[in-house]
Amino acid sequence: MKDFRTATLARMNHQPQPHQSGASKAPGVIFKKIEINEERNLEHLVVQNPESVEKGLVYLSHQHRAGGKFIDVLAVDANGIFVILELKVGQDDEMLLQALEYYDYVSSNRDRLAKEYEKRAKIVAAEDPRIILVASAFTDRLRKAVQYFKPRTALMEYAYLEGKPGERGLFCREVQFDVEGGFTPPVSLDNALSYINQPKARQAAEKVHAELCKIGRNIEASPRDGYVRYMCKNRVVGDVSLRRTFFHVSWKLDQDNWDGVKIASLHDWSKHKQQVLKGFAKQYRAVGGE
Question: How far apart are the first and last CA of the chain?
Fold first, then answer.
């Protein structure tokens, strides 16, 4: 499964998004979309290959009891943070509320869960859990809701594709939001960065912010709860997403793809500085920055 997925992703470079209906042509291969009719089948695919949803994702359990209900899939990401995955084969706005119930359970029991699964993965219980919703498609209503929802939630649209007979793979692509809908109250930079409670990471975040603001005269920083967004002429250049002990610096590559690095100290920043500034500068120019 993983070998097929890696090869197929390479062939699909610059091709239409995998969740589009019908067959997708790429050099030397035609991809056929296979329908998934039952949620348990989707769950099985995610359990078998969690990295089909997100690189570095490690499976912990499925149908884990949470109060009187059950979490579809419980995992931990590459940074050791708990991830609650709620899965649907079709559009279902209720999945957001379901995930919130599971989030409350995992957040309240993170120390116990970290100890329970300490042999499976390195888990950072101090970090707030994440939510990932996985479905074939999402309604506009749900897409809009997650922009205002806390904790911040990732939407992953999936497609189950077949290349050669018998070679199938699950592919997921995150739904991106270029511009925030409606009005989101700004906060001061100090208030935004106060979410980081590790001094070295906070110091690094202040340094990174100062460097990013020097990219060009049209760069605009917009601090919000949990992140700082960098814009140029009302178009997204990149983000700094804040966690308790580190932060991610991400920049757009094109309409559908992002790149980024994890920073926890000034030492990390010195290693990644040129890569980050080059990525931000390229996107800044692409959207008309001067």
Answer: 45
Rounded distance, CA 31 to CA 34, Å?
9
For the chain, domain boundaries: 2-174, 189-286
Helix (H, G, I), strand (E, B) or coil at 31: strand
Q: pLDDT (tens digit, 9 = 90+) per residue, 193-252? A: 999 999 999 999 999 999 999 999 999 999 988 889 999 988 899 999 999 999 999 999
Task: Output the DSSP codes for 231-249.
Answer: EETTEEEEEEEE-SS-EEE
CA-CA distance, 281 to 278, in Å (whole number)? 5
The pTM of this model reads 0.69
Domain 2-174 in CATH 3.40.1350.10? The answer is: yes
Task: Give the residue from 220, 179, 187, 223 showing the smallest Cα distance to 205.
Answer: 223
